[in-house]
Amino acid sequence: MAHVPNDDRTAFGEYLRRRRAAITPPERPGRARTPARRVPGLRRQEVAEIAGISVEYYTRLEQGRAPRPSREVIAALARALELSGAERDHVFRLAGEPPPGPRSPGAAIRPGLLRMLRDLDDSMPVTVHDGRLDLLALNAASADLLRPLATAGPYRRNIAYQVFTATALPDLLGDEGADQLTRVAAAELRTALGRYPDDHYLRSLHTELTATSATFRDRWERGEVAAWRSAVKRIRHPDRGWLNFGIEMLHDPERDHWVMLYTPRDPA
C-alpha cells in the first residue's frame, strides 16, 4: 500500500498528546482511587498499555523521535485514544499512511440524508446505495421512475442483480442505454469485490449472476472497473414517456454510501 507523503513526525506526536489529554481516565473497579492528576487525560503509560506497545516507544512517538509507526500500531493507538472514524483517518495521514477503508458499508443512513430524500420527492429522483451495491433508500420520485427494475429473490435490493435480471431494462433505457448500464453494473460489482474481497454476500451474488446470466458473463469477461461519477441518461417514465436526466454520484466515505441524484434536463 502506498504511503501518504508526510515527514512531519512532530505533528503526529502533537496530535497524540492532545488526544491523550482529552480522554477522561476510566474508573477501575476494585482499585483504590488514584491520586489527583497534575495534568488532565490519560498518562503515557496508560495509553501504551491499552495499545499494547512499550511506554518508551510511545514516548518517542509523542516526541517525534520514533521511526514511522506501522499501520497496526497506528490502529492500536486510534483505539486506545478512542478516536472517531474521521479522527482515525486523520492520524493515519499524519503518520504518512492512507486511512483504512471500512470493513463493510454502514448499515444506517444519516437522518439528514433521509430528510433530503423526502424533501425532494416532488422535484427529483434520489437513491442511496452502499458499497456492496445494495439499494438502501429511494424517494417517491425514484420509486416511480425505476419501477421496471423491481425484482424478487435474495438479491432483489442489489443494483447489479436488478440490472441483469430485470426483463424491462431495454424498455426503460432503450437498447443502447441498457447495453451501457450492464457494462457499468459489471464494472461496479468488480470494484465492490475489490474493496470487500472476503464478503460472502458479494461472492455469492457473483456466483449467482455467472450461473444465470449470459449477459453478465460477457460483461464480466471485459474486465472493466467502474470510474464514472457523472452521466446523462434518457429514461422512459412508465407514465410520462422519455425523460432526460443529468446524474451525479456523491460519496459518503465513512459509511461507503452513494447518493445518486437524477436532475431533470430539457429534452435534447
TrEMBL record:
SUPFAM superfamilies: lambda repressor-like DNA-binding domains. GO terms for molecular function: DNA binding. Residues 41-88 form the HTH cro/C1-type domain. This is XRE family transcriptional regulator. InterPro entries: Cro/C1-type_HTH, Lambda_DNA-bd_dom_sf, MLTR_LBD. Residues 1-38 are annotated as: Disordered. Signal peptide: none annotated. Gene3D superfamilies: 3.30.450.180, lambda repressor-like DNA-binding domains. Residues 1-11 have a biased composition (Basic and acidic residues). It comes from the Bacteria.
